Structure formats: C-alpha cells, structure tokens
Amino acid sequence: MSKIINIGIVGTQFMGRAHSNAWMDVDKFYDLPVRPVMKAACDNVAENLDPFCRRFGWQSNETDWKKLVARDDIDVIDICTSNNVHMPIAVAAAKASKHIICEKPMAMNASEARAMLDAAQAADIKHMVAFNYRRVPAITLARQMIEEGKIGRVFHFNAVYYQDWLVDPDFPYVWRHDKKVAGSGAHGDMNAHIVDLARFLVGEIEAVCGADEVFIKERKLANGSGMGKVTADDALFSLARFCSGALGSFMATRFASGRKNYLRFELFGSEGSLLFNLERLNEIQYYTRSETGCEQGFRTILATESDHPYINKWWPPGHIIGWEHTFIHEIGDLLTAIGTDKPITPDFYDGLRNQQVLDAMQISVEKKTWIEVAPA
Amino acid sequence: MSKIINIGIVGTQFMGRAHSNAWMDVDKFYDLPVRPVMKAACDNVAENLDPFCRRFGWQSNETDWKKLVARDDIDVIDICTSNNVHMPIAVAAAKASKHIICEKPMAMNASEARAMLDAAQAADIKHMVAFNYRRVPAITLARQMIEEGKIGRVFHFNAVYYQDWLVDPDFPYVWRHDKKVAGSGAHGDMNAHIVDLARFLVGEIEAVCGADEVFIKERKLANGSGMGKVTADDALFSLARFCSGALGSFMATRFASGRKNYLRFELFGSEGSLLFNLERLNEIQYYTRSETGCEQGFRTILATESDHPYINKWWPPGHIIGWEHTFIHEIGDLLTAIGTDKPITPDFYDGLRNQQVLDAMQISVEKKTWIEVAPA
Amino acid sequence: MSKIINIGIVGTQFMGRAHSNAWMDVDKFYDLPVRPVMKAACDNVAENLDPFCRRFGWQSNETDWKKLVARDDIDVIDICTSNNVHMPIAVAAAKASKHIICEKPMAMNASEARAMLDAAQAADIKHMVAFNYRRVPAITLARQMIEEGKIGRVFHFNAVYYQDWLVDPDFPYVWRHDKKVAGSGAHGDMNAHIVDLARFLVGEIEAVCGADEVFIKERKLANGSGMGKVTADDALFSLARFCSGALGSFMATRFASGRKNYLRFELFGSEGSLLFNLERLNEIQYYTRSETGCEQGFRTILATESDHPYINKWWPPGHIIGWEHTFIHEIGDLLTAIGTDKPITPDFYDGLRNQQVLDAMQISVEKKTWIEVAPA
Amino acid sequence: MSKIINIGIVGTQFMGRAHSNAWMDVDKFYDLPVRPVMKAACDNVAENLDPFCRRFGWQSNETDWKKLVARDDIDVIDICTSNNVHMPIAVAAAKASKHIICEKPMAMNASEARAMLDAAQAADIKHMVAFNYRRVPAITLARQMIEEGKIGRVFHFNAVYYQDWLVDPDFPYVWRHDKKVAGSGAHGDMNAHIVDLARFLVGEIEAVCGADEVFIKERKLANGSGMGKVTADDALFSLARFCSGALGSFMATRFASGRKNYLRFELFGSEGSLLFNLERLNEIQYYTRSETGCEQGFRTILATESDHPYINKWWPPGHIIGWEHTFIHEIGDLLTAIGTDKPITPDFYDGLRNQQVLDAMQISVEKKTWIEVAPA
C-alpha cells in the first residue's frame, strides 16, 4: 500500500483551481510511489473556501495559512496565493518541514527568494517552483534534444509572451496595476515564464538591458470613484546575453491585440533550431542541419507519441492534451520525487536565479543601461 | 442537495478510461442539476476490473453486463465495449429503464441500430451516442455560426480522417482486421465520426458512392502461427450527395503516413467557409464573404474565449484544452438533460441515421455504383 | 552564335500574356542552346493584336492562324487559344513541321487528342502540353524524391483544386457556362491539372467514379436579355483507382468560398508523404518514416535553394518566385529539347492520356457508375 | 508617343541582375508615361560587363562610373554597387542632374547620407532608395490599412530579419566580414530593411539600445593563407522607442539556422494587428478587434486580388508573385514619378533617417546604453 501524502493548498482562485484539478487527477494517470490526499484548503476569504472544497473534494479548510502550516497532518504546502505572501508562507512551511510547491514568480524580489531558498535548504524537504511550462511535453522534448546535441551551440534564444487583455481601455483599475502591490505587471507574470524556459533550455543569463511602457496611464476605479494611476508595466522588453555567449531577447506585453496566451520561443543553434508556441502546445518545430539541403525544412513534431515525454500517461498519438495537463505532470513528478527522495527541479534555487534575472531587467529599465545579473 | 445519478460503465479499455476520467471530472467544472456517482464498472475479464476500479474510483464491479443492467442502484449505463455487443446491452438497459450513453459506431449495422432506437423510444430514458467531436468547442461554434447563417447555403462538405498506424507492415493481425468480427476497418471507426459531423453541420445525406482498399493483404498472427488474411478495409473513400444539394466527400484511411489522428473538414458555403483539423482542435478557420475583398481571408479563431461553447467551464483565453475534454462536455450535457428532463443529441436516432449512411457506403463499394441512403 | 528559333503565338489573352512574358524572359535567365525570337502573334480579333505585339515585342502579326502556320519563318507554334481550336491548329502545325506547345486541356475530348498525337508523331517535331505545374520547383522536387524512393509505395493521392469566383450569383453567363462550347466547366480547366500531376507523380489511373453539380442553374446574360442556362459543371469530384493499386480522389470546384487558386495534393506512401498547396508554391511538406518516432513530423521544405530544381536560374535561398516562373521553366526546357533534339514531357501522349481520364470521369458522372479509363 | 528615359546602371552582380530584370519587364506590365531604355551598364570589372549587357540587353557599357554619369544620353543612374561607393556616385549623378535610384543601405553612415540628400535636393531630380519591401503588395496594403485607422494606435512593432548562411563555419572570410570595408555585417544589410519598414508603417524612432555579436571570430581566408579576423557583426539586436510612444524591437542575424530570408514583423495596435513574413510574401495576417469576440482571429489575407496594391498589373487572384516583382513595382513607380513630375518615396531623406537609426544602434552597442536618434 502506497504511503499517503497529505496536501494543503493555500489559494482558491485561478491557480488554486488548476492545482486542485491536478491533485485530483494525478493518480488516475500516474503510477505513483505515494498517494496524495487532498487534505485541506486555505483562503482568507471564508466564503470562497466552502464551495471550493466541496467542488474539488478538499477534506477540511483553514482561513489562516499559519494554522494550515502548523497542522501535523499536512505533508505538502501548495502555495497559490498572490505573490506578496509567497515568501512568508514558504519560509514558515519550510521551518515546519513541509514539502513545498510554490506558484511563480517565486517572490517579490531576489532577497525574498533567497530567504525562501535558505529556509528550504535548511529543512529536509522537496521544494519546487511551479514553472509548469517546463513540463509541456513538447518543451521537455526540446530539452532532451538539446541535451542530445541536436541543436549544437545555441546562438539565439528569442522569446515573447503576448497577451491582449489590457488593450481594452475600459478594463478597470485593479491591484495588478499598482507596482507597489504587484511588484510589476506583465514582467513578473510573463517574463518569469520565458526566463525560466531560457534557463531550462540554454543556461544562465549574464546581463540584460530592458525597456518598459505603460500604454494606458489611468484606468477607471471599479468603485466608480474616479481614475487610478497605472504604475505596473503593461509591457517589458529586454535583450540578454547568456553566459554561453548566446544573444537573446525577452518581450512580455499585454498589448498584443489578438494574442491570447502566446508564448513563443525561437532557439537557433549551430546544428539546428527549435520553435515553440504555447497556443499550439502539442507541437514543436524542429530544423536540423544534418539533413541534405534539398530536404531541409522546419518540421512540426506533434508531441503526442507514446515515447514523447509524459504522453504514455495519456492517450494514443494525435489525441492532444491541454494546458492543464502541465500541472498534472509537475505534481506527478513532485510526488515521485517525494516518494523516492530524489531531487526535483525547478526548485527554489531556480526560483532565485529567475528572480535575479527579473530584478536585473527592472534595474536596467530604470537605469537605462545594461545590468549584470547578480551572482547566485 | 442535488439528486444522485448512479453510473454503471461497461468496458475498461481506451474508451473506458476516457469516460471514467470524464465522470470523475465533470462536476468539478460543471454546476450540474444532478450529482453523478461512479457506482459500478463491468468487464468480462476480471483481472482488468480491479485495477480499473481502484484507479478511477468505481465503487463496485461486475463481470457480467446483464447483472449490471439488472441492478436497481444504477441509473445510467455507459457502453464502452466492442461494437458487437452494443446492441444487446443497450436493448437490455432500455428495457430496464436505464439512461444510456453508447460509444460509436452505435451498432454493427442499421438493423441493430434500429432495434436499439426502438427499445430506447419505448422506454422513458435519455439515450446518447458518444460522437464526442460534436462537443469540441470549435465544432460546436461552427454549428452555431451555421445556424446564424454565417456560411449561407452549403455547397461542399469535404471531410477526411487520416491515421497511419497500419502503415507498419509488422503491425500484427488482430481482430480488427477480420471483417466478420469488426464489421469494417477504418470505415466504421473513422467514417462514423465524419458522417456524424456532416449530419450535425450540413444535414442528411441522400446518396453515396464509395471505394475501399486493403493495402496489406496478410499480416502476421500474434501467436506466431502464420499469417492472417486482412478482410476489413484499410481505407474507405466515398463521395456523397446531401439532401440539400451539397456535394461532399468522406475519406477514412489508416495509411496516411505522418497523420496521427487527423480529422479535417472543409465546409464551403455561399456566405463563407469553415475549416477544422482535429490535431489543432482548439482552432477553427473561418472565411466570410461579408468582408471587403481587400481584407478577406481565412481567420484562425482560437476557440478558447469565455463566450465560446463550453469554455466558461475551463480556463482563461489562450489556455487550450485537450481531446479528453470533449467527453466531459458530452457527459456534462447528458447529466443536464437527465436532471432537467430535456432531450439530448446525438441520440439513437442519430446513431441509426449514421449507421444507414455507413451501410450505404459499404453496399456501394460492393456494387460499384451509387446507393441511396435508406429512409429513416 | 546560337541558332535562332522563331516563335509564333496564337492567342493574346491570359495565357497569351503569361507565355509572352516567358518567351521574353527565358534567355535572360537560362543559358540556352538556341535563341528564341518573338516573331509573330496571331489573334482573330485584330484590335487585340496591335497593343499585344507592341507591349511584348512580337515583331509581326497575323489574324488567321492558318497563315501563321504556313509561314516559313516560324519554327514553333504556341497555342494559347480557346480549347475548341487546339486540335485544328496543332494538326496543321504538325503537318507544317512546326514544333508545338499547346495550352491545356489539350483538346475537347480524347479523339481530338489522339488526332493531335498522331499528327505530331508523324512529323519530326517536339510537342508539349503546357501543364506548367509540373515545373513548379517544389513539385519537380517531389517527383525527384518519389523517384529516389523517399515515399515508397504510394497508397493515396488526394488532390483538390478549389476556386471561388463563381460563388457570386451576379457573375454573368459566359460561354464557359455552356457545356457544348466549353466542353466542361471546372472539370476540364481544373481537374486537367491535378490529373496531370497524378500521372506525373504516381502513374496511370485505371478507373474513376465521379459526380458533378451545377449550383447556380441560371445566370444573367451579359446583354441584359434574360437568363442563360448553365450546363457546364460548377464542380466535379471523382474517386480513382490507380494501376499501381493506390486509391485517390480529385475534386475540382469553383464554389469553394475563400480559396482563390488552391490546388492541393496529399500523397501518402509507405515510406513517407508529400503535401503541396499552390497558394504557397515555393513550399512542399515532407514526412519521412525514416526518422525516429520522437522527431518525426511534416517538414516544410522551402524550395528556393540553389540545388532545388530550376532555382539556380533565379535568386538566393529564401527569395521566392511566383506563378509565372513555371512558364519560363517549361519554355526553357522546351527550347533546350529543341536545341539538343531530346524528348520533352508532358507531350501529346500525356495530353491524350490526361484527356482519357477526364473523359472517363465525365462518362462516370452520366452513368453513375465506375468507368475504366480507355487504353492508350 | 511616350518620352524616352535612358537608364544607366552601375553594378552587375546580384542587385544588378534584379534591377535589370525589372527595367526589362516594367513596361510590359505597366502603362507608363515614359518609356525606359536600357542604355548603358557599368562595372569596373570589364569581363563581367559584356555577358551582362548581352544577357539583359543593355545597349552600351562603361568601366568607369564617372564616364557613365557624364554621358548626355543618360537620364537615370541606378546604383547597384557595393555600399562604399554609393555616396560619390550619387553626388556626382545629382550634380549631373540625373535621376537616381540607389540600393540600400544608402550610405556607409549618416554623414555620407546627408551629403547625398543635399546634392539631390540641390538638383531638380527624383531620388529613391531601393527599399523594395515597401512595394511587396501585402506590405503596401498594410500601410493602407494603417492609414485607414484599421490598427489604431500602434503599441508594438517587433521585427526580425533571420538568415542562416554564416552558420557554416567553413564559409570563408570575405570582405563583408571586415567592418572597415563593409561598415557592418547583418546590421546594415538587414536591419536597414526592417528599420525602413518601421518608418514606413509606424513612424520615426526616438531612441535605441542594441547589442551585437560575432559568433565565429575567425574564418579561413579564401586564398588558403590562414585565417581572417571577423569584425563585422553576425547579429545585431536592438530595442527601440518610437516618437509615437510605441515600444519595438529589431533583430537581424545570419545565425538563424533554417531561416533563409525570413523578415517578419508583428505590429500590434489598439484596434488590430498585422503580421508579415517575407518567405510568404503574398500573405499578410490581420486581426481586428472590431469583430465580435466569438469570431475574432488572425486572418490570412492572400494579397493577390485585383484591388490589392500592384496586383492589377499581374495575374488573377491566387496566382502568386515572387520577390523580384517588388523591383518592378519600385521602378514602375519611379518612372511614373519621373513622367508626371511627382515626388517618390522612399527618397534620400528616408535613406538619411534610416541611416541615422542604424548609426544610433551601432553607437548604443559600443556605449552599452540607450542612444537617441539624431535629429533630421
């Protein structure tokens, strides 16, 4: 009989739903060394909590994350809150020897991230940052191909993350528009993902130089009392030099009309290239210079074969999976790591390094010059 | 408190897994008037049954479908077996006043299908054939657009269903290769889907003319005892005239190297056109003649907006869903129909009409001439 | 000094323009063994002739093709007239020992085509049917790859030719709508092309079964005197069995809203597949089963490399060519064949075989049954 | 009878061929107010000159551009030489009151460009920089749509120009690798084009910040005498702020394996978006927010309709044109401007402004900071 691992989740909104679905589904498709039990959910808004627990089957609830963290019957803390409380929850959870999975971006800044990493390393726990796109099968495949030398030396990693939901001038002022509360706008939410993929696929970033913009400077307050001043970036673009010598770019914007959740990377190397677009997440395009010239071309690999990463959990070839499956993959791997006591990535070290790159980009925007990424 | 609806499933293989996942997930994402309970699973191979029930949470099991159908504590029979027992199970279930959802193709031939329809109509039950592609959001959207007149009069419906898993000559002889057991090959499995979509989107088919082929005439028996003669079609193509005057085509093959599960339709009308491809199931291409010439073009609608069909159950725009979600949609709609006592489609009438078209195609292949589809 | 070859063209409309452009450009890009001189143009409408000659540099003109054919200073007759006079011009030209290039479809029917072939074979001339799509570089490449065995045994050749210019109900009645004058509608114009590509890429066709339709039965006469009855097909679809055992389809329609000149073929074989679409004529998609499963996918070959067919005449990689270049290629190859006294294809034999397939399709439509293609 | 305009071309290589083809073809497809005569070609390598003149029909030749410029029988000087002699030729031609078309980039730097502009403005001539991509029909259409307000306020213009011919480490050292001779590498050749499109479509650029890289630091000398040090950039990326407030990016590289001549721009605005890729130059993708949400999507406009820019010179819808046609369009417009004495763009002012942006990017690379573009 598998060992039981009790899960406590903090946060019941978008990410809370996506993680709950994953906790619920994971052992229906994975053969796991441990068995997850959806033990408790936590939200400081009590009226959110009840329907959430009933819907997804969380067995108990808490309105104070400190109480959740203190419970003896919880083995894993899953942090799906707003960014500004990631750090205190994670540090407390680590001190209480709970395994942790934390939504991205890991923290408000690098010093918070470092505190989280320190706490996690001081405890004997598994810690993970939920950069779920590493576990899109097509992207995991890209990493495998890179490790096998299929792309050779990487010259360029050009990534964009385009959305368009702020183009509407009637979209009201919310907390996300306030830099003091949110830390940043598109930057922390979207560049965090593509910087993580850059580190996953190419390696560490040496220096960056960015620019940001707020296109709609004021938005109506939801309560009708006037206008709020937007201080968090609508878009932040940055160039980057990698430690390996590659030259890259990162461009996050919420003002790309028509692009809903369009994360694209273009990775060009000495032996081949890889292209990816999240709106077609079951596909990756691959070009190899090893073919004869006459037959060269970008091929569209439909990453739904049983020997593609994660696909043996799912359906026959050509039956595509969705965005939510990436969460099941990450939670499946986390539970396996817990059950076998093996390391898991991306961990809090990755979260820290990610945060350091994001911080450097923001400093470069302010100083209007290149900034070296801080040492780990 | 919602009324409980107890489900009994027959069959634990590919479709059994897909349906189980849907029964498990449906009330996490739908607000349903009834609450499904995964009461019992049935398989005549006992050793399949236990791990299946444990994995998906089926509360009890049966090895004889007759016992399952006889149980008082079952409200819905979900038929996921091989095609040759659909009819007896469905007829028995109808007589026992169970609601029925039956995998496609509904039956081995039209006379079986008619027996099922008669039994279902004689009982006061909901009956559904699991043509799940009607509930791909992009396809449901296509139907809406057609009803709104966006496409006008339909001139052509050209559909293909391409797979490639039989191209490998070492793929062994299995029961599917025997026409007597399987009824047909690519035809019943794949043409059934595109004929259903044709009826859903365009309407009834008047006459057909087809051709089939077996490309690899013999295959190795799995037990090593020699070769088996392949009698079920590897491919069956058919032209079709619709009652509305449209001219169409249906081409199903398992010999389309590189195509894994590629169902495409091209629907051309007097006001616009619609194109769909299952390997990119979140997208549909739409052309409207109402735009000025300079700006006309096929647009790719990413059917992940909250006002697209079914998407309000799921995630924000641009977060794509997978193949398995179509089952959740169909089961969600079935449970709603049960709870509100409203009709549901595709029902056994649709299954019969579908079967009549498939039968006509097979007759036309044999007689090498056009065949009119039998009247309902 | 290269030998001079004097050209006489008959017809000054669309094809006359496209051929004139080719005659003018060909020796700027080819190093030819002979030098073409644009000697004379012929049109029975005198007022068309003058501006045409002045524009393209035709040195003299004739209003009677018989006079043109009789001229001693003409070496090649280029037939760009309406279909119903192809035969008499070609037969006369052959008797006068002129080389001939004739627009497609070669003739009104197979017996005309046979007369043309007989006349050409009795003379010592080069004869060519202007199926220009054989000389799209991507399609010539496809043929090379097939000859090299890259695709293996062909299972399917599915081709469509979609246009939409007749969807407009206000498009007036013209001679093309009269079957007696035009021979057929979409069929002869469009199926002729895809049947030629089928023969070029796959081989001879054994039997066919088709269906046609006229969607708009009457159209306004241009002179305002009422309505004309449309008798030529708006669309003609056909299934086909190849002598090799492949199963294929041909679908030509002028009622495919949004498709302007969309000729697509899908060729599926035991070792790989090839896909082509004329609206992206510089590209061909190729799938090979020889790759490992993990990296398989349809690759888009951009056929603009210097080692792709014909491209060494043109520009560096990635600089695409247009539709008109196919005429330059065919005329370049014809002049080379004349200069070196080597055979050229597609010749009048190909034109005859093509016509026999088209005829069989039309007979099958009338008889509503399968028809075997007549022997050569 | 149209007035004759005599053309003298300097340079017989790649651009010399492309321009010659355009001079030859232009009056076959345009109805021009003047008639171009291919009067003289010039190259300082005499043995290149003869075959070039014979091939394209240049009537006379010169080996010294000064003599060409001095000839009374020349009305237009077409400069297709290496960049370092653009300025002296153009200044001399302007002084001799010849109309000028000059290949891009206009000059080695902004001060040269200014000298050219001053000379041109002092003379009563037409002057044009051959940024031919402005006259890709799809791009001209984009400009029209922007002027009509279809895109609204532009938020982003992100452009790349990817090629891959330097990825091969065996590609030898040539003069292009020496910054002193070539001025720059990918930058001047490729960023020049996308900066021109940015100015054409969005407007002036305020400030830039770039980074460059040489990936292969040494290459074999062609004469076998050792290695040459590469000083010209293999890639140069830059961020940019437009005067209008838009935030953009420009990325030129010759190390994008698999991309042959891939110029892409993505233009996102408050009312819609436009996407373009030169390898599919007959297409442009357009998204409009004016559609209802359910039917929104990027549409692919095939810019081959008769009411699309330039297409009425060519073929029916769906018959695509090639890269070379852009030169015919630019020369057709230039001749029309000469014949009607109307202004033509892009002119030397555009060339100067373009050069100022390129210069600012290079300075920013050296200074590792943002640089404001110099005032006109």
Question: H/E order of the elements of chain A?
Answer: EHEHEHEHEHEHEHHEEEEEEEEEHHE
Number of helices of chain A: 10
Q: Which residues of chain A sit in consecutive blocks of at least 5 with pLDDT less than 50?
A: none
User: pLDDT average of chain A, as an integer?
Assistant: 96
DSSP E strands of chain A, number: 17
Quaternary status: homotetramer
N→C terminal distance of chain A: 41 Å
Classify the beta-strand content of chain A into a percent band.
Answer: 25-35%
Spatial strand order of the main sheet of chain A: 16-15-14-13-7-12-11-8-17
Structural class call of chain A reads alpha/beta
The largest chain-to-chain contact, stated as pair and per-chain residue counts, equals:
A-D, 44 and 44 residues
Q: Main β-sheet of chain A, in a few words?
A: 9 strands, mixed
Rg of chain A, Å, rounded: 21 Å
User: Which word captures the global form of chain A?
Assistant: globular
How much helix, percentage-wise, in residues of chain A?
Answer: 25-40%
List keywords for this structure.
homotetramer; 9-stranded mixed β-sheet; 376 residues; alpha/beta; globular; 6-stranded parallel β-sheet; 10 helices
Question: How would you portray this structure in words?
Answer:
The structure is a homotetramer of 376-residue chains. The mean pLDDT of chain A is 96. Chain A is globular. Chain A is built from ten helices and 17 strands. In chain A, helix 1 (14-29) packs across helix 9 (325-340). Chain A has helices at residues 14-29, 46-56, 65-70, 86-95, 110-122, 137-147, 179-182, 186-201, 325-340, 348-367; strands at 3-10, 34-42, 60-62, 76-79, 99-102, 127-129, 154-162, 205-213, 218-220, 227-229, 235-242, 247-253, 262-269, 272-277, 283-288, 298-302, 371-372. The two termini of chain A are 41 Å apart. With 376 residues, the first copy, chain A, is an alpha/beta fold. A nine-stranded mixed sheet of chain A has the order 16-15-14-13-7-12-11-8-17. A six-stranded parallel sheet of chain A has the order 3-2-1-4-5-6, sandwiched between helices. The interface between A and D is large, with 44 and 44 residues.
